[in-house]
Amino acid sequence: MLLDTLVLTTSNSDSSRLHRFTLFLRGADVLTGSAHEALLDAGCEDAFFGERDGAQYAAFAREAKSFRRALRSALADIADALPELEVVRVEPDQLVTLAEIAWRSGLSREGVRLLANGTRGPGGFPPPVAYPDNKTRLWRWRDVAHWLREHGRGGAAVDSEAADLVAAVNAAATLREHAPRLSKRDLTLVTELLGELSPRNE
Fold this sequence. Notes:
By secondary structure, the protein is an alpha+beta fold. It has helices at 33-41, 67-81, 98-105, 109-117, 141-150, 160-178, 184-194, and strands at 17-26, 47-52, 55-64, 86-91, 95-96, 139-140.
């Protein structure tokens, strides 16, 4: 992942925060003069546009009162500037190592290790969801973020709502990409699995 694209927050006098995140893009070449100018004119002056391994991205540092508002406005600005441009993924990544958990939460790596193995804290730390090799374990960040918030660990650095939103947006982007390749029967199965979505009241 891009090391400067975590959802970090810095309070300002007007109670807004600075949110850092990256949108990976597909479609128009955002590095060409006309496309880049259109993005800046649409309000993306707070983004750095680049390319990594053939994937285009926009790394934002956007002020807003919540991560949701920051992300929504960034998506809207990109759509207004270049409707043909598709957002395919939002970072920060959802799969994290113990070291990444420590960095995102502001805790020490050893402290996170002790929480994860139950030596410290109330127990019940979320289990890993993937084992890429014999030494590496990966956790789902939204699970860890909720546990940390529930048990008062990590403070304001841990935004569990942002973690939920990133996971859901990326899931929606993945579904959007794969749905056209599915048969009508398979697509019906997917929609049945989704069921009736009931958003939380705010």
